[in-house]
Amino acid sequence: MALRSIVLGTLVFLLVAAMAPTLPVWLVSLATIALANALVVLGLIILWRAGLVPFGQALFYAVGAYSVALMTRYTGLRDVLVLIAVAAALSCLTAFLAGFLLARYREIFFAMLSLAMSMILYGVLVKTEALGSTDGFGVEQPTYLGYAPQGRMHLLMLFWLVLAFCAGSALLVSLYFRSVAGALAVPVRDSEIRLEFLGISVSRLIHLNLVIAGTLAGIGGALAALSIEHVDPNMAYWTTSGGFVFVTVLAGAGSVAAAFVGSLVFELLKSIAYDILPGTWQIFLGSALLLTILFLPEGIGSLFARLRRRRQRQSMSATP
Amino acid sequence: MSAILLVRDLEKTFGSLVAVHDINVAVPPLQTVGIIGANGAGKTTFVNMITGHLRPSKGAILFEGRDITGRPSREITRLGIARSFQVPQVFASLTVFENMCIATAIAHAAGGLLAQAVTPLHSPDTVTEAEAALELFRIASYRQALAATLPQGVRKLLDIAMAVAGAPRVLLLDEPTSGISIEEKFELMDVVMAALKNRRITVLFVEHDMDIVERYADRVLAFYDGAVIADGAPIATLENPRIQELISGPKLNVAAAGSRHA
Amino acid sequence: MRHQIRGHAHSPTLLLAAGLSFGLPLMAAGGAQAEEPAPVKIGFVTFLTGPAAAPFGIPDHNAAEILVEALNAGTVPAPYHQVGLGGARIDPKFIDETGSAADVVTQFRNLVERDHVDVVVGYVSSGNCLAIAPVAEELKELTVLDICGTTRVFEEKPRHYVFRVNPHATMDNVAAAKYVQNKFKDITVYSGINQNYAWGQDSWRDFRLTMKDLDPKATVDKELFPKLFAGEYGAEISTLLTSDAQFIHSSFYDGDLEAFMYQAAARGLPQRIPFVLTAGETSLYRLGPKLADGAIIGARGPHSFFAHDSALNTWFQKVYFDRFHEQPVYPSYDFAQSLFGLKTAWEKAQAKKGGSRPTTEEVIAAFEGISFPTPSTTVQMALGNGHQGISDMAIGTYKFNKAQNKPEIVDIVRYPAECVNPPVGVDSIAWLEGGMKGAKCD
Amino acid sequence: MLTAFAIVTDGLVYAAYLFLVAVGLTLIFGVMKLLNVTHGSFYAFGAYGAAIAVGVYFDRGFPAAGGFLLMVLVAMAIGLVLGLIIERGLLRLVYGKDEVVVVLVTYAAFLILEDVIQLIWGANSYALYQPLGATGTVDVGALVLSGYDIGLVAFAGLLAVAASFALKHTRWGRLLTVVIFDREIAAAFGINVSLVYTITFVIGAMLGALGGAAMAPKIAVTLGIGVEVIVLAFAVVAIGGMGSVEGAFLGALIVGECRAAAVHLVPQIELFVIYAVMALVLVLRPQGLFTRAQPRKI
Fold it and tell me: Has this prediction a pTM greater than 0.95?
């Protein structure tokens, strides 16, 4: 079963990677941003399984994005792997520190405290005129192990990079979900007391999940910064966090794949909305969200689940 | 022989209110102790302090000679003292099997959280052990049922089974038969006690039904107003009229009457 | 396959644009089958929703609507009487600028790579302009930035495909500082209140630097940066009431400006200390008598009240008023300048090519360094290797004409372009810090 | 000295503003455990409604007092209509779902209403300037206070007292307190919880609209005013303690004074002083200032 989905995932990954050059350019760049954001959503799914919904995940997203941007602006560092490694490390550290406070909170208080933290970063960034305040500043194009692609190739390389990170994270996270610690997310929501009396430190467990989610958000931010080639304080604003939660609900906490599909669907929806309803695209988005919640309460991910169940039923009936 | 659990001058106060005081108990290994007393007599407070849910205001708790006073419950659990709950604490949105797997997997996963983050949940031996535990507690038939949907008796059994998964030496049962119809009570206790004997576990159980106590306890601790007013063999203690009306008042007779007819 | 996507993306666009701009694209589409040249597809990006729509997006969009319509009908006065761009009709596609930098960049890419627009004109937010510029270079798309004022677009990097006809924000505050010099004799102390984001911070910085140059002894008393769209300014107003400044500088606009002014007026602040409102012009018609006489008003260029009168301006104000029953404000003028700049370059390139449709590179070559008349003034593409326009600047003092019940600007002072803009090759901050060397002011 | 006085008064005015926008939110949260993002829309609709209706009223030259009454009436009407639509038409369908899902539903409704506002009233901003003029000013040394602000503070104070009195001493209030304490028990007592929900939500909506109407004279009523308010209100409510009217009052007071002090003394931090306070309070008192942590029964 686990093996099956891994094989399946690898196939999809290779297929998409191979198709990329044949896809229209606008779609590739749209997918690049969508998948970068999907990493943040993946982190939110980890937290949501444990009943935690941060309204300030943009904090780590912005930390990742600004680390990359600052490195390309003030240091000679250009290699994409170095940039992302550092960004990941910094956002991981941020999440680790923030975790000491956040891990003690649940429900709405958790949401509000994380919101407060991200808004403080936002305030600081807006105040830093050296970094262009709200205008933000540009991100230099990275090199890939010394190779500096141009034009279309640059776009494709970035897409493949993002795709690779998504594949890697998807694999690791689904393995994590199958581990003991990963399996404890739902129990945290059901009964923290029982966990404590089984010998688990719930706050440490949540701290771990926060660090994982924060690091994913940081990598997402770093990749987003590279594909937008611009960063600004809005990346830390609460509406950005809200957007990620939006996509998480759209995707549903059901499966890892949901994060990526959900994020792609969301970006496409938005792009269509902008295109056909420039003046009233929010109505479009809002309605889309409502319909998802009403008719796909478990999110887009639940579609896979249904398919899987159907497949199982068929295989059962096939072998009586 | 030396006590596996030793409680010295234990006291718990909430502000000005004294919940329990001057508790001195020594429990030898493999004994089964029934704890009785009217509501608010301090039974659960006592259990909560031993299992680390409450920090004693005064006194000491020794487990296998080691002082565990005021340690957090997860440490105490790791040391070998487990507990079940009056309101069963199971993972409602998971199946019985998953509940059991998680309990056993945690018991197995050595090292810290990071180690647990890389050990798979469904390793062969955790699964077999979980299956075994479900058999032992006679709830294997509910294997795939969601914990939320279980009848009270089964939920209680699952709660206890999960507590036992960590192979504790001492187990505290907080009102294992509360909310269970009189007919089922004995059934349930038979299963539980058989299982615990099989695992060679020292048991302390809080109970209101004196027949249960009489049937399963080797020894009775009677709580009244935060203190232990009697500590001895079941029959002797329970027959004592003063104890009877101090502890249980009319409740005993009703319950007893009910069960005698049964 | 891409064709399908494009078609799919496009047909609803026409419907929408029809709704948005009174059936004009239908005409364009209708005209498309005729043997006349294929239309020039232009993507117009501005704030159609959100708080920035009222002050910038809507005037911007309104101007686009009437100008595209008039250009396609060939009813614009000389020198812009030729239909569309060099005879080719303009096929507009409007996109909302609201959203994150990621959204804005994605929409830009969609315009270029999915809808294959020939030119993109627009962007109000300086942040978005900075985000778009490198993408435009990467996609080799001719892009005319519209209202954004940041100097960084062309000072951080030379651009090839990006132009900005409208002068950057430096001259607003240089002119304002020069104006207060002869308005108030011997200034010793002044205060400032600006929105806490890049535009507000930059405006205040430029103004202070210029004041240092012109009047070193003048000191700053209060320096306030309320949050953007803060809504409630009680504390700021008290602070300013307790300030002994001779005037208060502010780059507030529209919503914040009006909210601030209502609250300030209610507490007698404007009566006590006059304001210098570098972007005040957008709100004059709404504020009317609620804005105390004597406020110093700028319009980010010699627009509307400050416009030189010309046939073009009279025409522009008329068609605008007839359609929307209000006077065009500076964002409308900014758009007109952007479009007329593009048109001039396009037609110059086309003429050079003997009347056949120019390529992007040819338009760019023609665009660099040209100068052309606009409804309000004349723009010279002088800075950023001929990619950044400059024009003269005007500032005046507010006065509400009770008789005719309409706002007026009196004591207008004009400053030549070279007087309030840095010379070629000098960054504006360096220029201000260096004492504005090379300014030609007479 | 004057500065100190200014800080206190400015803080009070800002606190009044915050309380007006937060009280409805905290009420709804307290009773329905629902973090209502639509609150921002209620605020915006209230502001637009008042700006237009009251503007017309004043232009006709009717007496000022009636204008203020009308302001309140408009707000209540809007709250009634919107509240009913949202609660009956939308929230009904999602009660019992995951808390955050319900929050997202209100967020979706908020997105839609943002555009509805633009469809109804267009993108241009409206101004309701007459009331400020009608209420005059009070001079305190160099400081000039607006009569309207003083009225606002008084109004907010009254509202706070009235609300907490109503909750404690009226039959309805006691019903609410029961529901707040425990939904199941309330239902067991035969309280019609669903009706309580509807009425609470409508009252909350009215309070939100009232906040907008009360602020309309001071601001330019324009697109996006709702967004700003939501997160402010959240902060105040989180600081005061979710679901407590006294908490909202105290929270508003703290935030108001801190912000005023920041503006006067250290303007640089004004932008995030609110969130700093919020983080601080949550760290020191996880449950906020006014709700006490419920003991977990095992």
Answer: no
